[in-house]
Prior knowledge:
By secondary structure, the chain is of the alpha/beta class. The chain contains eleven helices and 16 strands.
Amino acid sequence: MENKRWKVLVNGMGNIGTTLANLLLRYQAxxxxxxxxxxxRTLQAWxxxxxxxxxxxxAVICTYQPAESVLLVAEVLPVVDYIFEATANGVGLANLPAxxxxxxLKGSSAQGSxxxxxxxxxxxxxxxxxxxxxxxxxVSCNTHGSAALLKTFTGQNLENLANADVVVVRRSEDIxxxxxxxxxxxxxxxxxxxVGTHHSMDVIDMYKTLGINCxxxxxxxxxxxxxxxxxxxxxTFKRPLTESIEVLIKKNPFMAxxxxxxxxxxxxxxRRYGFNGRIFSHAIVLxxxxxxxxxxxxxxxxxxxxxxxxxxxxxxxxxQMNLPxxxxxxxxxxxxxxxxxx
Length: 342
């Protein structure tokens, strides 16, 4: 792709959008970005302070309704090279037809809720499939967690996977919100009678892009927590492992471990030491609590709320835009953001 600096738009200034904007601004030079636009649908007095912080860091705020001294999204869309869709609940999908008509647009990605936006993607699984492609759907944080466990223990192409089952224990919503809190455990409906919830469906669909059948089932329960997700996994192998579980985890840079049993403590460590208070690992395995036999491994992992999918979002941009020295740039970002132990 031509050697020029690109203009990018982050559409959405919520939890995911602002963290993504901060990442883009931190790595702006390495990512070959000229301007980071951040779109906020409504400009209110209560979000003025956050908008000021983003502007101080170098972002350009835009909005959908005329406002004094603020660009309109309609002015920005024709000139941007890439769009990070950071809205939810189908808004990104609704915007997709209009994006496909933009004359300058070279690529775009949306988050897990926007299934069907483009090729389902997760760093380290199907990188080669999205290189140079226009539209990508970065799978959800819990899909990251489940897929990462399968890849770590059964191989890049799941060659040693006989079958697997996961129970995703979800936090109810982000710590900064209070719209979907639950007062007791709530079990999710199995959307598919043979594979379960959307987590297994999304993992299966992602591996289909590689022509791989993934024998995974999943269930989901939401808890009265605003911190981290967890996942109980049960993975059965075709052949006995030739390496220890610990060695397999160390071979996957996206994975982390912890000796802690309390997700509150792990979450707090992420708040202290992670960029923007996030943990970016795909999953954090509780290595002191595994049940290992010759042909299976069972255990628990904590799953970061959106850090893992944000890391994949940066990677999608690098691959879709064929960024010069993209591998080196992403390796540096991984070295900065990932920790092997919490």
